[in-house]
Write a structure and sequence with these properties.
With 190 residues, this protein is α+β, with helices and mostly antiparallel strands. It has one domain: outer membrane lipoprotein receptor (LolB), chain A (Clam). It contains five helices and twelve strands. Strands 7-8-9-10-11-1-2-3-4-5-6-12 form a twelve-stranded mixed sheet. Strand 8 and strand 9 form a beta hairpin.
C-alpha cells in the first residue's frame, strides 16, 4: 500500500467527521502537482479552499462574510473573490490541501502496516482489505489493481468516514485566480 500511495497523483476526498462534537464535511480534489480545490462545511458555513501556484486561497462566500461580521451589502465588491491566505491562516488547512500530508495523516492515525489486515469487505463493488488501527479507526484498502485506500472510518473520539474517489484521474482543480479576483487578507483583519 505504501508504494502505491507514494506513486499516487490525485484523489478526491469526500465525507464527514465529528471531532469534539463539531461536525465537518469535506469534498476536496487534490493532486501531487500542488493543486487542491474543494469545500469544507461546518456549522458556521461553507469554506471554499484553493491551492494553486504554491499559494492558498479562501473564496469569499456569504458564510465567510457572516463569520467575519461583514454586512452583505457592504461586501458586494469582494463576494465571490479569493482571499489570499498567509502562512498562519493556511496552517490549519494544510492536511486538506496537500495530498501527501493528507495521506500521511490517514496512514498514521490508522497505525497501518501492510500486514495488519483484520478482515475483508467490498466498497462500491471493489474488494478491500480491512485494516484496523489502535484507536479503532478502520482503513479499507483495494485488493484489485493498486492497493489504495477507498475509505477510512474514524475511531476513538472521532466519528464519521472519508471516501477516496478517482485515484490517479484528471480532477477539476482551478489554476491561480486572476489578480482582479484576489483580495488583500488585511481587509478582513479583526
Amino acid at each position: 500500500m505504501r508504494a502505491d500511495l507514494a506513486s499516487a497523483t490525485s484523489v478526491r476526498i469526500t465525507g464527514s467527521l465529528t471531532v469534539d462534537g463539531q461536525k465537518a464535511s469535506l469534498d476536496i480534489a487534490l493532486n501531487t502537482a500542488g493543486g487542491a480545490y474543494g469545500t469544507v462545511r461546518t456549522a458556521e458555513g461553507d469554506l471554499i479552499l484553493l491551492r494553486a501556484g504554491g499559494k492558498d486561497y479562501a473564496q469569499v462566500t456569504d458564510d465567510f462574510l457572516k463569520q467575519q461580521n461583514i454586512p452583505r451589502d457592504s461586501a458586494s465588491l469582494v463576494l465571490g473573490k479569493y482571499m489570499l491566505l498567509d502562512a498562519a491562516q493556511s496552517q490549519g488547512f494544510d492536511q486538506f490541501l496537500d495530498l501527501k500530508a493528507f495521506l500521511a495523516v490517514v496512514v498514521s492515525t490508522t497505525g497501518t502496516d501492510d500486514n495488519t489486515i483484520t478482515g475483508t469487505a467490498q466498497i462500491a463493488g471493489t474488494p478491500v482489505d480491512i485494516v484496523t488501527g489502535a484507536d479503532d479507526s478502520t482503513l479499507y484498502v483495494a485488493t484489485q489493481g493498486k492497493a489504495l485506500p477507498l475509505r477510512v472510518a474514524a475511531g476513538g473520539d472521532t466519528s464519521g468516514q472519508i471516501d477516496f474517489l478517482g485515484w490517479n484521474t484528471e480532477l477539476r482543480i482551478p489554476g491561480v485566480p486572476p489578480a482582479s479576483q484576489v483580495i488583500d487578507a488585511s481587509k478582513f483583519a479583526s
